[in-house]
Specification:
This protein starts with 6 loop residues before the first strand and ends with a strand. 28% of the residues are buried. The radius of gyration is 18 Å and the shape is globular. With 231 residues, the protein is α/β, with parallel strands linked by helices. Helices cover 43% and strands 20% of the residues. The chain has a five-stranded parallel sheet with strand order 2-1-3-4-5, with helices on both faces. Strands 6-7-8-9 form a four-stranded antiparallel sheet, with helices on one face. Strands 10-12-11 form a three-stranded antiparallel sheet. It has two domains: 127 residues, Rossmann fold; 98 residues, Arc Repressor Mutant, subunit A. It binds calcium ion.
């Protein structure tokens, strides 16, 4: 058994931000390995095999996306992208390349630590149960029975169309991860045309209404405008 202190690789070239993130994580009980460039990040990734990577996209020696690509060639180690860019395209590109989540700078400590916990929890859930949890998914009153293809909330059966069910099942299989519109559309319909996003939004609005989601409440499915959905 390895030590139960998770090891986190922090890739950020601005020393004060790197130090801030490391201090925050250490205070949260994590072990940290700081890297100030893309090339040192790759070396440290290989020698330390961290449980999670915090990855800045704007690095001095290379684009952070190269580090992301490099890690994804060999592992599913969770990666949270740190980005000063508020461009949606960068977030979408990073998520499509396999990042688990992103945090836009500047960020609050509490939110940041919550994202870290989620990414680690999802990763350990996957390694214990395999990529696709067998049989049943349960969270806060929401139950999905994969064999029966049925969904219930607080014991009440929810009537979903086949497409709606497929979307809910897909989100649950990637619980905690922000899925981009493109990814969902490709997984559900297999193709992408100009009407796809509208079609997805209509289905999603129906799903959220049926699950009893309300604006401003703690909901099962979160929508980040222009990016995607997360369960
Ligand atoms: Ca930077």
């Amino acid at each position: 058994m390895k030590s139960n202190r998770y090891k986190i690789l922090v890739v950020e070239d601005e020393p004060n931000i790197n130090e801030f993130v490391c201090t925050l994580l250490e205070a949260g009980g994590y072990q940290v390995v700081p890297a100030l460039s893309g090339s040192s990040a790759m070396l440290l990734y290989n020698s330390h095999r961290p449980d999670l990577i915090i990855l800045d996209l704007g690095l001095p020696d290379m684009d952070g996306l190269n580090v992301l690509r490099y890690v994804r060639e060999s592992s599913l180690t969770p990666i949270i992208v740190l980005s000063a860019r508020d461009g949606e395209m960068d977030k979408v590109e990073a998520l499509n390349m396999g990042a688990n989540d992103y945090v836009t700078k500047p960020f609050g400590s509490e939110e940041f630590l919550a994202r870290v916990r989620t990414a680690l929890r999802v990763a350990s859930h996957r390694s214990e149960n395999g990529m696709f949890p067998g049989g049943r998914f349960e969270t806060d009153g929401l139950v999905i029975d994969y064999d029966a293809r049925s969904v219930s909330v607080d014991g009440q059966q929810i009537k979903l169309t086949q497409t709606e069910y497929n979307i809910v099942a897909l989100l649950s299989e990637h619980v905690g991860k922000m899925l981009t519109y493109d990814f969902i559309i490709h997984e559900i319909w297999g193709y992408n045309d100009t009407g796809s996003i509208k079609k997805l939004q209509v289905n999603m609005a129906n799903i959220r209404r049926k699950l009893g989601d309300k604006p401003g409440k703690k909901n099962y499915i979160v929508n980040e405008l222009g990016v995607g959905y997360r369960m």
